[in-house]
Q: What sequence folds into this?
């Protein structure tokens, strides 16, 4: 009882509403809205600032507009309202300052690990020797030393994702945009990718926007977790995670935080413009809990007394 209370109190101090920060944001999202085919309101009035060196997770159930927002940041979707700027310049399309990573590593199957990296670096006009050296450094960084000559089909799913991460980092974008990149990996491989990404981020402090529907993944990785809800897609809360790194998904405070976010999402389910789609939808997962526990599904009653 006392332990639970202590957990709750510490989670309350470690997960707080984000404060407005001084200085120009690296990425500024202002009143962004997007409607598909004049009928699906994927985003409404979204305001987010991402500062240099921040790791921001966009968290929410399927269909709440996370990917639409990420693609708008990438310049692949032109929002129907509002605007987005990067380093003070309007985002009007894709550019080399942003690299987007998907669940699929999207490697060239006929090229080796080294060649996959060198190819994109040469495409960015790096001299051959520089591209080779940079590729070698980033292959080492993701723990694939010794696999430079391997073809993608000779690697496991986790190793292929490491190659995709090495390639994205080697391009040195101003912002790395990640769309559920570890969603297709098994739990153990995903945990090792979380460790790797945390380790790399602690060293490089790259600006990252990471989409997920997994609450613990967001809390393990994010400096901030922007909690979104659907129908229409909107920001519910922008939270700062004050847990020290590296983070453990089974840390008691983190588990308590995930309960609070799940409760918040449960309450938001009851406040929507339109009914949920027929046939249900992907739930927000709170990994590490027993089956059925820790998930938000359509219309679930909100847990009591877990408000932020
Ligand atoms: N090209 C499109 N045309 C029409 N509607 C779309 C299109 N892309 C997305 N939508 C709709 O916009 C809404 C937001 O979709 P989006 O993919 O951004 O959500 P999401 O939160 O990323 O979901 P998921 O986690 O399942 O990827 C959904 O209702 C979706 O059906």
A:
């Amino acid at each position: 009882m006392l332990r639970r209370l202590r957990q709750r109190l510490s989670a309350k101090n470690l997960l707080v509403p984000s404060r407005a920060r001084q200085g120009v944001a690296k990425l500024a999202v202002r009143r962004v809205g997007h409607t598909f085919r004049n009928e699906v309101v994927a985003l409404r009035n979204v305001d987010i600032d991402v500062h240099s060196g921040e790791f921001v997770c966009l968290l929410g159930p399927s269909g709440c507009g996370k990917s639409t927002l990420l693609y708008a940041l990438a310049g692949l979707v032109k929002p129907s309202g509002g605007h987005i700027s990067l380093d003070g310049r309007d985002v009007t399309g894709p550019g080399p300052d942003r690299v987007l990573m998907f669940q699929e590593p999207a490697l060239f199957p006929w090229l080796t690990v080294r060649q996959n990296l060198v190819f994109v670096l040469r495409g960015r006009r790096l001299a051959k020797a520089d591209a080779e050296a940079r590729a070698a450094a980033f292959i080492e960084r993701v723990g694939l030393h010794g696999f430079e000559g391997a073809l993608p089909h000779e690697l496991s799913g986790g190793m292929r994702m490491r190659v995709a991460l090495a390639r994205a980092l080697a391009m040195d974008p101003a912002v790395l945009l990640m769309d559920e990149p570890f969603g297709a990996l098994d739990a153990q491989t995903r945990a090792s990718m979380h460790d790797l990404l945390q380790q790399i981020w602690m060293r490089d402090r790259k600006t990252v926007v990471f989409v997920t529907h997994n609450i613990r993944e967001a809390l393990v990785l994010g400096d901030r977790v922007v909690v979104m809800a659907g129908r229409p897609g909107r920001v519910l809360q922008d939270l700062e995670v004050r847990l020290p790194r590296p983070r453990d998904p089974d840390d008691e405070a983190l588990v308590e935080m995930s309960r609070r976010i799940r409760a918040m999402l449960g309450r938001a389910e009851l406040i929507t413009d339109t009914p949920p789609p027929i046939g249900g939808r992907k739930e927000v997962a709170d990994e590490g809990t027993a089956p059925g526990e820790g998930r938000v599904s359509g219309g679930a009653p909100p847990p009591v007394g877990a408000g932020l």
Notes: Residues 36-37, 40, 42, 60, 62-68, 213, 233, 282 surround adenosine-5'-triphosphate (CB under 6 Å). The CA atoms of residues 127 and 172 lie 16 Å apart. The helical segments are 2-14, 66-74, 113-123, 128-141, 157-170, 187-204, 215-221, 252-269.
